[in-house]
Amino acid sequence: MLRPSLRRRSGAGAIVLAIGATTLFGGAGTAHATHGPSGELTSSDGTHTLVTGDGVGIGSADYTITDAAWSPDGSRAVFVTGYGDIATIGDSMEVYPIAEAQTDVTRATPEWVGDGSTVVWAAKEAGSPWRIEGSVSAVGFDVVRRSPDDGNHYSEPDTNGSSRLVVQRQAADSAGNAVGTPEIGFLDGSTYTRIATDAASPTISADGSKVAFVRGEQIWVRGTAAGAAEVQVTIGGTAKADPVLNADGKTVAFAQGGTTVGTAPTTAGAPVTTIPYLPGVPDYRPAKKDRVVRLAGSDRYGTASAISQSHWASHSNASDPRAKATVAVLSRSDTFADALGGSALAAAKNGPLLMTPTTTLAPAVATELTRVLKPGSTVYLLGSAAGALSTTVENQVRSLGFTPVRLAGTDRYATSIAIANAIDPTPDKVLAATGANFPDALAAGAAAGAQNLPGKGTSAVVILTKDSTLTPATLSYFDALPASTEIYGIGLWGDIATRPYGGIPVSGSTRYETALYVAYAFFGGYQHIGVATGANWPDALAGGALMGSLDAPLILAPGTAGQVGDEIWYLGEEMAGSVHTGLVFGSAAVMNDVQRNGLGFHISGPAGYTPVTNATDVLRTTDGTSTATARASAPRDGADVAAAVKAGKERLAER
């Protein structure tokens, strides 16, 4: 945990967010780009106050907070604590860690990358040049180097919505001191491309078309294209520093003499407007609306179809931007017994999970299968013909032109093994949860499914326990696993059942807490949060398959309660910086508007959120800079998972 432990400071008052104007070298300090529509201009003067447009500040009185930058939706600011940790804070004054301090390492100028899934910052050890580091924007993930190890200083990172990273570069001597003239350029992977010389403290516009920077204590602007003209915006007066472009790139704000903030149009010799009530370092807080999508039908078949349609493309439409399904998973609709491993299978095999009565194929399901799958595609049937999905269902699937593949065992426990073997006979991770009830396995299904996504380099399955015991077939399964397989006990019974195999517990005191700890343990930097009722299973089953495909967690809520579930509050607020879409599975009869609205409130920034029903554009980010590359190393090992759960429990205990 950070020092002091990071927790809710509701009694601290709306006052403190200190953002220091850290000068690295070259005569300039921090610079931040806005990722979305610009809201209010804020500033900080290096004390404990972030001043907003109405003169009010936010923060935590327990921290000196420097170099803060707003998330893409303006919900949270990332900053460096006085101890050197990277953490975030929002209007509620809740402080959450991302990366703990490293001994003898100085950090500065953190920035959200692209969609907010990762964060970058500058770091320096004595005797070494500054470097750019980054991490998934959640606590406990590896810190990775993002700049070349070529003997130069790399500092002042800034990004925009398209994830383009602009940095300051300067030569270093053998002692790690800055020498020569600074310059600015793009950093694409390990490739650096110069933009301008004799330039420092770059900031990039939201559309990536221009950068502002400091030269000779004045503000300059130029286009990012090769050979673009350079324009000196400010002329004379006090020294200028810390530029930030507004969303459309037509206005630049900057510090003046360390005492006031000025703004100017991004044109040559533009007049400067001084804003006396904004001292210190400026930043535009984005005002980008988030959204909450309810996915629901008139029954469980319709809800599962709506969930499928939100993400998976119509196979006959080549221009459909949604993801292309290659399979579908079909489960019985009357009980969860054979279906609990289905969410992980659907995500692993790249398709939706649908459900039907045991004796016939529901018309809505037949329609969705023919929409989403090419003829000849595989449809996995979960459970035996005698006890789960009949041969009539199998034949109806075949008559639609698909290839049914049945995954079944003698009971639900053996069926979960058959499903697991279809994913990977020798998985890297096994998530074990009781098959005598549904909540723990539903959360586990989304987590296991997400581990199988391309780029993760790992595989995971869900295995059902008979509460605290293992059936003979399950015992044999565990005995045959490779020694390298990590085993996780999800929920109390999963924990007890897997202890003889060294299972790592991921368990809370309730089904709701367990799902929350699964989210803490296996996910980070995600753009979606899925919520389903904890009182029933069909909506969460289909929703969990979608969440696995989105690489995002499924949590449970008291769907008809008169106040929002605590877990929505905890996770939504902590991850608001990267989350732009909340997903609510099921109609208002099972997940009421109290839960939906609470989710929207906790994930959104100053612009709020838009409620939507049955959207068809719920897509996983595949941007190679911010997500696929930076998150490819996101899967945690057993020690990381245990630490994440422990830290999560500590945070909850302090609320």
TrEMBL record:
The keyword Signal applies. Keywords: Signal. Pfam families: CW_binding_2, PD40. Residues 623-633 have a biased composition (Low complexity). Residues 623-655 are annotated as: Disordered. InterPro entries: 6-blade_b-propeller_TolB-like (IPR011042), Bact_Sporulation_Assoc (IPR051922), Cell_wall-bd_2 (IPR007253), WD40 (IPR011659). Residues 1-33 form the signal peptide. PANTHER family: GERMINATION-SPECIFIC N-ACETYLMURAMOYL-L-ALANINE AMIDASE, N-ACETYLMURAMOYL-L-ALANINE AMIDASE-RELATED. This is Cell wall-binding repeat-containing protein. It comes from Micromonospora thermarum.
